[in-house]
């Protein structure tokens, strides 16, 4: 104990942090009694006032509770009452006449309309009385097995269909995980410091506090994650290791192992979001590395059709029953029309063919963007439907977005992805709109290249 309190800073803060970490690790379980003030002061070689102050801080934080005549105990993490804290409103992305909209990725039409029509016709011939009753999780076993086959090209490790939960899209899956694993009245969730806003919205609706973790070219930094774990005692870590949104960063195998090692040390559950998956699956997923703590989230929204609202959740090994029970409490199961349509698309081979053509289309678009903007600082992956561009000297992201809109192009400045108190770099994300022609996309990208080459006079250095 004495070595813990020999660093810089007030000893009461060091003692409080030491106790926080022991509570987070489970060394001090709920209901555990702490030593009397004088006993701990003697053991730690500090004054009783130091211990009393540390206890008082943790009591105010809700981690401890003190009862006169009984002592000080680790508090139970009971849910707080009342509505969740307010969140930012979703940005309503509506088409703007006369402008090229690169704010959100949109799928190219590469045969989905015809395939959906054919599937619906086949399904219509099979409608029977089963469509009149409630659907159940147990009735989805055939579709769960089809999802496993759909994911057979990914390095996921062992994946029995029993570990699969079917959801209403990727966002639904993220929310379901948070409902399953978060405990206490102030749970903490860690995200990348630039991240898809949906993570933040889902966490706040689950009453969680959300904290950003600094990144580098490979995504989340291990040293920053370690520091965040020590400071915030999080329960969940949300990551996009294959195709980070918005930066396109991809974690190496060594980085993934480092992140998992820290998660194991601090007993974190991990949400691995693969909704934007790259063409090449040549690195093991986090789920393959840590199957006992990773919840793997995906959907068909980015490769087939966002209108289907179909997603899947691969639960940690042996947790499928718990995941399906949570889904049953939330929404019983998928609607019969959606489940039947998706199963037909899988079994007919249409889904795989469409996914291949969509990735080919976005590969063409991403290579075109790299050719046009390659003289600037850009990050991209083949098949990924967006590009991240660090702005030239003299530009700020908000100013660049405004000038781009004046030039007829809408895009996302970095502050759309940053935490409320975080730092927004001078960068923008450009979605490679699949619903516009290559010629129109090329024209818009060349306008952006022209802007990059000519920063405003009042900002040039």
UniProtKB/TrEMBL annotation:
SMART domains: HTH_GNTR. Pfam families: Aminotran_1_2, GntR. The keyword Nucleotidyltransferase does not apply. One of its GO terms (molecular function) is DNA-binding transcription factor activity. The keyword DNA-binding applies. PROSITE patterns: HTH_GNTR (PS50949). In the C-terminal section; belongs to the class-I pyridoxal-phosphate-dependent aminotransferase family. This is Aminotransferase class I/II-fold pyridoxal phosphate-dependent enzyme. It comes from Stagnihabitans tardus.
